[in-house]
Each structure stands twice: as C-alpha cells, then as structure tokens.
Amino acid sequence: MNHIVEQPDIDALVRRNRELEQLEQDHRRMELIFKQQAHNLQERMKEINCLYGISKILEQAGLSLEETFQQVVNLIPPSWQYPEITCAQLLINDQSFRTKNYKNTFWKQQAKIVAYGEPIGILTVCYLEKRPDMDEGPFLAEERSLINAVAELLGQTSKRKQAEAELRESRRKLKEQNQQLKEKNIALREVMSQLREEKVELEERVLANVEHLLLPLVKKMEDRGSELDKEYLLLLEENIAQLTSSFGTKISQLHQRLTPRENEICNMIRTGLSSKEIGKMLNLSYRSVETYRNHIRKKLGITNKKINLTSYLSSL
Question: Which of 47, 91, 196, 251 has its CA 20 to 30 A from that of 202?
C-alpha cells in the first residue's frame, strides 16, 4: 500500500515568514524605542541631579561666593549629553570661574545671569568636539532649559549673597555706632559730673565772697546814705542774698514776653515792696505801678485776683 506525502501549503509558509519578519521588525523598533526612552530618562536624571547638587551647594553654610560659583561650574559638565567633551565657564561680577578643560569653541550654549533686573554675568557650556545636530546645534532642548535654570539660580544666589553681605555690613556699622555712642555717653556723663562739681565750687566761692566781702560793704553804705539810698541798698542786699536762686532764670524762661521794666518790677514785688515804694524808687506814679502789676498778671496767666502776686513770684 503506497503512502501519499502531502506537500506543505506554500502560500501559508510565505504568510508565516512575512509575519515572523514583521514581528522581528516590531521587536527591533520597540528595542530602539526602549533604548531611546532609557537614554532620555538617563538624561533627565542627570539634569535633576545637577539641579539637586546645585541646591545642596547653595545650602552650605560658610561657603564664600567664589567657592559657590566654582563648585556650581564643576557640576555642569556631567549633566550634559556628552560629559567627556563638555566644559563650562561662568563670568559674573567681573570674575571668571571655569572647568579645568575649558576652551571656547564653536559648539556652545550661553545664558545670561540677571540680578535686580540687570545682567551681571553669562554662563557658557561648550563641546570640545563636533556632535550630531539636535534641537539647538548639538544640544538638546532640555539642555537649553537646564542652562537657563542654572543661570537663574546663580542670579538669585548672587542677590541673596549680596543682601547677606550688606546686612552683615549694616550690623557691623550699627554695632560700631552703638559702641561710639556708649563711649560718648560715658564721656558726656564725666563732663556733666565735672560741671556739677565746678558749679558747686563756684556757688561756694560766690556765697563766700557775698558773705565776707559784698554784704559788709553794703551795710557800711546803708549807714551813710539817704533814705532813698537805703531802700535801694536794701533791695541790692536782698538780690545779693538771692544771687544763686533760680528766680531770674525761671521768670525769663517761662515768660519771655515780659519787658525789662516788668522784670525789674517783678523783682521788687518779690522782695515785698509795695506799689508806692516801687513808684518812689523808679520815679513812677502809683497808678503806673498798678498798671504794670496788671500787665504782669496777665502775662503770667494770673487772672484770679485771690492769688497773691508777691507769693506767686516768691514761689518761682
């Protein structure tokens, strides 16, 4: 009995071969997509690490502005697509910070650094060799975003460091001014103390001279003068005795509108002289003296007639 061997369906084999080829193409395409996504993810991770690293540098206490800028520049090349051929330079505030391999080439990106609305520097990232064109020459669009972000951070850092320096200087000046003020206050207190001592000594000398020299002479003159002379001498004696009182100062400070004649009459009233006696001494009529007394009361604000003018002036 003969067996018949069936021939395979050629068309089915061709279809199957095409399906396998398509699957292989799809597989290669997916591999490329996955590789590209992995590459992109790696690039994004480098960018994130760059910004994170810069933030950690900016947080370091006691780091000078120059040290900060140099560390930031050193952190840039590993964050670009071709770190082995990447270099960077920062020009800011008339200072230059660069990586050891820096060279100005045709393949570069730049970003301005701005503080308080004014440009204060420029950040440059260069490739040392030619690379395929991407979004911006050989650079990625994400690298443009990254260099802009770094430039913005540097501008903010410059402003903050400048503000901190100005604050420290203000505090230093304030501390210095406070110290100077303390020293001046101490010196002023010493001067005031010395003046008080000198005042006491002067008063003691004046009183001694008044008691031992002036008053004895006035008493001798009283014994030899006329009645009018005696009245003037009594007034003089009273004023000499009150030489160190504050009446004259108070009457002039509180009531500067009094005329010299009114001040003179105030002094006579204070010693207890009547209007008649004052008129006789000043060659004025009784009525004129009373008019002066009324003017003095008004200027001193003594409108109440019950207040004795002599007692009021004696209390000053």
Answer: 251
